[in-house]
Design a protein that fits this description.
The complex is a heterodimer of chains A (115) and B (111). Chain A is mostly beta strands. Chain A contains no helices and 11 strands. In chain A, the strands form 2 sheets. In chain A, strands 2, 4, 5, 6, 9, 10 and 11 form a 7-stranded mixed β-sheet that branches. Chain B is globular. In chain B, 34% of the residues are buried. In chain B, strand 8 and strand 9 form a beta hairpin. Classes of the chains: A mainly beta (115), B mainly beta (111). At the A-B interface, strand 5 and strand 10 of A face strand 5, strand 6, strand 10 and strand 11 of B.
Chain lengths: 115, 111
């Protein structure tokens, strides 16, 4: 069984388009995250949700809007895509960011290419 | 400010060589420390983690790491690397609300 899943795995689109990436976890975790990994492999936190509530928003352009319909899902919608948005986006989940032994588990990633 | 630095950006080793990857963190509170591995084209997988207790932690695939509080370090080690260890390695620290990742070390093991 896949613990953290993302769709799609690859996404190629034109500048200016709007696209969404979906993430689901079946681990029963309370906290979910979105990370952006650039071409140099640098991993940067974008958002974090705990039980459907936004707890981290790391100065991400407001073209990026996360949505958490329930604690097992955290989707990422991106408006007006730009060339610089090209990256691999990873979803992750953890039991609860307030827990002493909290540990993150990552999804397979979505490679976004903006042309 | 919380930060993680990995000093080695690229490491090239021959098979059977010993590995040590450096990781230093800056965080004032109780730390949880992690090493993740990312094989080419794949997602990050947890190698090992430290929360408390024995500062020498053992992970999967023969990896281990030692937490040295006085040096703010959590270096990753493996006595004998294999070609299949070729990957990107990330050190991370969990602060109050978020995880902070180092910039990664790209390891290439030559067969």
């Amino acid at each position: 069984d896949t613990a953290v899943s993302q769709t799609p795995k690859y996404l190629v689109t034109q500048m200016g388009n709007d696209k969404s990436i979906k993430c689901e976890q079946n681990l029963g975790h309370d906290t979910m995250y979105w990370y952006k990994q650039d071409s140099k492999k640098f991993l940067k936190i974008m958002f974090s949700y705990n039980n459907k509530e936004l707890i981290i928003n790391e100065t991400v352009p407001n073209r990026f809007s996360p949505k958490s319909p329930d604690k097992a899902h955290l989707n990422l919608h991106i408006n007006s895509l730009e060339l610089g948005d090209s990256a691999v986006y990873f979803c992750a989940s953890s039991p609860g960011q307030g827990q002493r032994t909290d540990t993150q588990y990552f999804g397979p990633g979505t490679r976004l290419t903006v042309l | 400010a919380q930060s993680v630095s990995q000093h080695n950006h690229h490491v090239i080793l021959s098979e059977a060589a010993s590995l040590e990857l450096g990781c230093n963190y800056s965080y004032g509170g109780t730390v949880n420390l992690f090493w993740y591995v990312q094989y080419p084209g794949q997602h990050l997988q947890l190698l090992l983690k430290y929360f408390s207790g024995d500062p020498l932690v053992k992970g999967i695939k023969g990896f281990e790491a030692e937490f040295i509080k006085s040096k703010f370090s959590f270096n990753l080690r493996k006595p004998s690397v294999q070609w299949s260890d070729t990957a990107e390695y990330f050190c991370a620290v969990k602060g109050t609300y978020k995880y902070i990742f180092g910039t990664g070390t790209r390891l290439k093991v030559l067969a």
